[in-house]
Amino acid sequence: MRRVLFFLNPLLMQRRNRRALVEGLAHQLRGEGCEVELQDTLSAHSAGEQAKEAVAAGFDTLFVCGGDGTLFQVIQGVAGSEAAIGIIPFGTGNVLAQNLRLPRDPVSAFALLRSAQAVSVPLGRITCKSPGHAQDRTWYFTIAAGMGVHAALMNLAPTGNGKRVGGRAAYFTGGIRLLLQHPVDPFDLQLTLADGSERTLRASELIAVRVPEINIWRPGGNLEAPLLQVAVVPETTRLGLAHASYHALLTRKSSGHSRLPYPEYLTATQLACRPIQSHVYQSPLLVEADGEVIGLKRATITIAQRRLRLLWPR
């Protein structure tokens, strides 16, 4: 750790002297002989390009001071590079920090990261139709990507204001409202499973996961394995989706005596989601990655050739 850049999400630095806190962390590293700079992300979608420029300028360590959304954007610029990424949690969910067993307190998290080794982990890759672009776009992710009602939940506050104002309570309330109001539409899903076999089914919800935990949900992914842990809810009604969600989050059952569906878990290397040609959709099929809505209608998800070097206390 010689040249260090702190990336700050300015929207998350407005509360409780957070900026001064980060400046204090930078001061500690300067006292140890590191060259340190602080830089605000200019916008949500500029962070990737800023990170790419930082790597080209010779920064070997980037601390992301924000949430999962800020990290997602930064990853787009550093994927495949030798730069190490450290997460200082200031966001709402902080899911990747949760899986790295980092404390929610930023100062305590930084204390662990200073002595942590960088671990090279495979990245997920998703290619999807992106509004405003003639060609499909490709993104890298570390947590999860998918299609269905859960993606609409991420779209409740596209500016991020809902995350900052309502926090987790806003997500919980929004999730209940979506289950009651949002259309539950099916789509076609084709998977290449870990054993090389193919499977095709019609689904109402799909999440391809890279991590063991997402808040209270335990899908059982493995950040170090080049595989996708896929959670699927087969084509169903609103009641069926509510039933499957309940068991995924609370009982963790994947089978039972009910005629309503349970979540099904599969290990895959690639999958493709497509709209059903004969189906009339009441609203767009949204696609999300790491909690950010990135596209609609179709998506292909796999493991990328590029990797990410994460500071990971062991």
Secondary structure tally: strands: 13
The profile of the biggest β sheet is:
13 strands, mixed
* Approximate helicity band: 25-40%
What's the CATH class label of the largest domain? Mainly Beta
Mean pLDDT level: 91
Secondary-structure element series: EHEHEHEHHEEEHHEEEHEEE
User: Any idea what the radius of gyration is?
Assistant: 20 Å
- Per CATH, which architecture of the largest domain? Sandwich
- Please give the count of helices: 8
GO molecular function, one term: ATP-dependent diacylglycerol kinase activity
Domain DAGKc: 1-130
InterPro entries: ATP-NAD_kinase_N, Diacylglycerol_kinase_cat_dom, Lipid_Phosphate_FormReg, NAD/diacylglycerol_kinase_sf
Protein name: DAGKc domain-containing protein
Q: What's the layout of helices and strands?
A:
Elements: E1 3-8, H1 18-31, E2 35-40, H2 47-56, E3 61-66, H3 68-78, E4 84-89, H4 95-99, H5 106-113, E5 118-129, E6 137-141, E7 144-148, H6 149-154, H7 161-181, E8 187-193, E9 198-209, E10 228-234, H8 238-251, E11 264-274, E12 286-289, E13 292-311
Parallel strand pairs: 1-2, 1-3, 3-4, 4-13
Antiparallel strand pairs: 5-6, 5-13, 7-9, 7-12, 8-9, 8-11, 9-10, 10-11, 11-13, 12-13
Helix pairs in contact: 2-3
Account of the protein in words:
InterPro entries: ATP-NAD_kinase_N, Diacylglycerol_kinase_cat_dom, Lipid_Phosphate_FormReg, NAD/diacylglycerol_kinase_sf. The chain has 314 residues and is an alpha+beta fold. The chain has two domains: 3-116, Probable inorganic polyphosphate/atp-NAD kinase, domain 1 (Rossmann fold); 124-305, Tumour Suppressor Smad4 (Sandwich), CATH 2.60.200. The protein is built from eight helices and 13 strands. Strands 1, 2, 3, 4, 5, 6, 7, 8, 9, 10, 11, 12 and 13 form a 13-stranded mixed β-sheet that branches. Helix 1 links the parallel strand 1 (3-8) and strand 2 (35-40). Helix 2 packs across helix 3 (68-78). The radius of gyration is 20 Å and the shape is elongated. The two termini are 18 Å apart. Residues 157-162 have low confidence and may be disordered.
